[in-house]
Amino acid sequence: MTDVIRRKIDRTRPIPAEGAPGADRGWRLALARAARDAMGLDLEFRSLTIARQSSTEILEQVPDLALIALLDGPRGGLGVIMLAPTVTAALIEKQTIGRLATQAPPARKASRIDAAMVAGVIDSALIELDETLAEEADFSWAGGFRYASYLEDARPLGLLLEEDAYRVLSAEVALGSGARQGRVLLVMPANGRGEVQVIRESRDDAEAPQFTAALSAQVMQSDCRLDAVVGRLTLSLRQILDLQQGGTLVLPNAALDAISLETIEGRRIVGARLGQHRGMRALKLNAAISPQTAATPAARVTPSVAEQPARPELRAAV
What is the rounded CA–CA span in Å between residue 26 and residue 36? Predict the structure, then answer.
């Protein structure tokens, strides 16, 4: 009889919004603090909802002339944040003239410069969200995202959003004295790829000597040099002395998609390919680094120049 009564009571309890209270409270605090700390702008949430939606449903609610920014997430996850033009304009005005004008400027399409100016606020909000959700379950899907790039319009989103479902935090915010209001959409994959950081203190940890923690901290802060190797070449001493300005060195089997990440001793850690990230050269790893691969010596191929004479038609390796 007690179980029957308990089940009836549970049915009368309201079902909380999916992701709440962690993501709900976290995003409210994170975005408001980022706007306040980064540029001294008051931001208040008038409403916030969290729902599971497909990519088709997301495309149907993109605000007109919205600033659309792509977010990098854990293990290749892709997120999106969309700012209504009134929100973007308020953030730009506060940075450029130090205050919000009496009249809101006419709505216009966001530019790449606008995206660069609000990228810092976006990252600050996402970092604050990570700290708020550090020990909560919602960190698995809402944590670890950062600003990646700007999207000129919403049309490519249909191809970029490849997940079956996404969690969408849809908010109506008021800025400044409340005269400026607009919509902010935060979109993240529904199936979380992050790891919840749960801090648990066991009896063994409490009784461990203090020098153990200090030693661990020192070791983890040690530098470890890794070299990205495009190719290797073996030269004799005579060939080195014969090198002249404008000469050509041939790197056999060198390719930008077959780069080896190696230790200073020449041990191969993982393969990678060369690319760019936010305008800087970057490497994309082909696999996760594991202690087993790090301990395996690299199989080097060092062909001799004498065996493969340089040909004038080959381009110099850059």
Answer: 15
- How do the domains of the chain map onto residue ranges? 14-189, 221-318
Q: How confident is the model at residue 18 (pLDDT cuts 50, 70, 90)?
A: very low
Q: Tell me the whole-structure pTM to 2 decimals.
A: 0.57
Distance CA 259, CA 279 (A): 20
Token readout for 51 is 């729902």
Percent of the chain predicted with pLDDT > 70 = 78
Q: Which helix (H) or strand (E) holds 282?
A: strand 280-285
User: Picking from 53-57, 124-128, 141-145, 303-307, which range would have the lowest pLDDT averaged per residue?
Assistant: 303-307
pLDDT digits (tens, 9 = 90+) for 186-218: 999 998 776 665 444 444 454 456 667 777 777
Quick one: which H or E segment has residue 34?
A: helix 22-39
The answer for residues whose C-beta is within 8 angstroms of residue 259's C-beta and 6 or more apart is 228, 229, 230, 271, 272, 273, 274, 283
C-alpha span between 279 and 207 (Å, rounded) = 48
Name the fold adopted by 221-318. Surface presentation of antigens (SPOA) (2.30.330)
Residue 250's CB is within 10 A of a number of other CB atoms, namely 17
